[in-house]
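Aim 2, interim progress. The first record below pairs a target sequence with its C-alpha cells.
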Amino acid sequence: MTLSSAPECPAKIAGELAENVQYRGRKASRQGSEQRRLSILEAALRIIVREGLRGVRHRAVAAEAGVPLSATTYYFNDIQDLIADSFALFVKRSSTNLASLWSGIDEDFLRMSAAIEGNPQARRDMVEHVIELAVAHIEAKAREGDAELLVELAFRQEALTNSGLNALAVAYRNLRFHFAERALRAMGSTAPFEDAQVLTTLILRMEYHALVDGVENLDMPGQRAVLKRFLDLVIGL
C-alpha cells in the first residue's frame, strides 16, 4: 500500500476529532455565557496542572475563574461533568493545533516517500527527519510549563475510572498512533501498524521522563540513539 492510498492522513483525523468533541454540561445560549463557560473550564485545567484532579472543586474553580459559585453549578451539575468538559476542551484545542501542524508535515511525508524509492540516503534522511520531529515535540511539550503533558496524564488517569471519558481518551490517544503509522509507512515499514505501536510507546516513555526528570536533565542524545536504533531496525538501514 502506498502512502497516498493509506488510511486518512492524521491532520484530517485530528481535525474531525476537534470538530466532533461533545460537552456534557449546559450549553451556553449567548456569546457572553459561552465565554464564561470557557473561562470555568480553563480555570479547571489550570487547577489540574497545579494540584491534580483532587483540587477540582466547584468553589475552587469559581475562585480561579473569578466567577460566582452559582456559575459553576449552573453550567455543570457535578464535578464529574466539570472535569469531563475540561478534558473535552483540552482535546478540542490540542486536536485543532495538531491538525494545523500535521497538514504541512503530511505533505513532507508524501514528498519524501516518493524520493526514497531505491535511494538509501533519502531513506536515512527521512529517519533523521522523523527523529528530530519526535525530539522537538518532546522538548516543546516539556518546556511549555509542562501544562499540556500534565493535563494529558491526568486525562489518561481519569479515563481509567470514568467510563464516560473512555471513548474520547481512546480517540485522542490514537491521534499520535495515526501520525506514527503514517510516518513509518512513508519510510517503507513493512508492518507500519505494529511498528507504530512501538514508536508511540517509546515517545510516551520519553515524555514521561522529560516531565519527571526535567527536560534539562533528559539525555536527549541517548533518546535520539534509542529512536534511531528502533527505526534502523524497522526500515532495515
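The second target in this work package is listed in the same format:
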Amino acid sequence: MLSTDLADLKAYMADNPGAVIEDVARERKVSPRVVIEALPPEMVCIGSGEHFAAAMQDIAAWGEVTLIVHTDDAIFEFTGAIPAGEIGRGHFNLMQPQGLHGHLRHERCAGVAFVERPFMGKSSAFVAFVNADGGIMFKVFVGRDETRALRGDQLARFRQLADRIAA
C-alpha cells in the first residue's frame, strides 16, 4: 500500500471510526487488518496470533457476548456464552454439544486485535481474530446491559486481556 493511500485511510478512519471494517476493506481493496491498523492508535491494539487459545479461554469466562462472522454473503451473529475449548487434532475445538460449537483453525490466526470505538452512536468493544491473510476470522463483542451500555465487568476483562496479549 502506498504511503499516501495509507495516510488517506488513516484520515478516513479517524473521521469515521465506526465505519464497517469489512466494507471499508472491500471499497479500498485492502485487508480488514489494514483497516483495523488504520484506526486511531487509542482505539486499537494488536497482539500475536499465538495467543488465540488463551484469548478464547478467557472470553469463555465472560458470560453472554456476541460473536459475529462477517462474510461477503452473510453476517452471522451468536449471542450467548462462548464455550471453553481445547486444542486437539489440529483445531481449537469448542467443547459444547449444543449452541455454539465447532472447530476453529487456530493456527491460521495471525493476530488478536482489541478494538474500542464508537459504532452507531454507542461505545463498542470487540476482539477480532485476524487470519494469516489479513481477514477477520470472527469478532467477539463485549456484551451490553439492560440499558444497552457495555457491561462493565466484561469491559474490564477485555482491557485486562488486551494488556496481557497486546502489551
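The first strand starts at residue 44 and ends at 48. This observation will shape the mutagenesis plan for the next reporting period.
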